[in-house]
Amino acid sequence: MWRETEEKPEFSLTKAVEDVGQHSYTQTQALKEKEKTLSSLQAALSNVEKKAETAEQELRSKVVEILILKGVLDHQEQQSKVLQHNYSSLWTGITKLQMSVTKEEEDACTALVGFSAYREKMEAHRAAVLQAASQTEAHKQLQETRALVRMLTQKREELREDLEKADGNTVLMAKREIDDLKEEISVMRMTTTERRERLQKEFETHTQMKKEIEARQREIQNRRYEAIVKRLHCQLSRAQAVHRQTSEDIHHMERELAELRKQLESSQDSRGAGYVPASLCFGVGLVLEISKGWRSAAAVAAVARASEKCDFGWRTNEDTDLLHTEAELGGCLLFLIS
After folding, report:
1. Suppose 315 and one of 106, 158, 319, 334 were both cysteines; which one would form an S-S bond, judging by CB atoms 3.0 to 4.6 Å apart?
2. What is the pLDDT of residues 187-205, one digit of tens each?
3. How far apart are CA 73 and CA 69, in angstroms?
4. 75 in a structural domain
5. CA 235 to CA 221: how far, in whole Å?
6. C-alpha closest to that of 24 among 307, 32, 195
7. Which domain of life is it from (predicted)?
8. Owning domain of residue 269
9. Is 318 contained in some domain?
10. Overall domain count for the chain
11. Is the pTM of this model over 0.90?
């Protein structure tokens, strides 16, 4: 009996565990399905939102296009009104021009009638003048000049025939003139060749002189450059000598400063560890400023501030002497550096 009672609760417990596991499995499966549906719904919702955004954008663009078209339509209406006004003004101008053209045509017709009458009168007057001039001395002179022109034309024809002949007088005279011109041309050619040779010689002399002048200028320029280089070498040697002298002075002063620092350290050890002399502060500040390479009044001010921050409470004659010597050395060193 007791074993049966033990087996029953174990059986019920395992069954309960299986039921719980089955229930949890079903719940997980349902949850997964719900998550899938949720993701699908979210995707559909995002697609719908995207479509809605695109639709809104398209709607906005359409509204903008409609507004633009309305503006264009208003502008076209204004232009049509302006064109209609221009058309009316042009039509009135055309009518006025047509009226003026008809008036001018009528005036032209009347003017043509008057001109034809005036031409008839002038022709009659010309005929009368010619009839009167034929009976005057001027007409006789005109007849004489016409006879003279006929004679001159006859002589011209005779000269032309003489020129066409090979042994004519004019041909011989022309040949003599051509020979004389040829002689003159030959003489001119000889003179031009002589002048050309002279010009060539002068050009050669000019080129030679130009070369000599350029060589002289180059020589003068080279001498000038050599003098400048020598001057720069002298300045460089002087600067190097000054730099060597200053570096030697600086090393000497640094050695003296190290000796003074050793003396101060020995005096500090003898007096106590809590006191820092002003001379040591001043010397350390001076060395720092020199090592940084300052060359201005700011370096001196910084050293002075460093010396003011030090303890001047208790000082002996020996400290004051050391302070004065270090100050003098620092001043000389700054003067040499600057």
Report:
1. 319
2. 998 999 998 998 999 989 8
3. 6
4. no
5. 21
6. 32
7. Eukaryota
8. 245-337
9. yes
10. 1
11. no
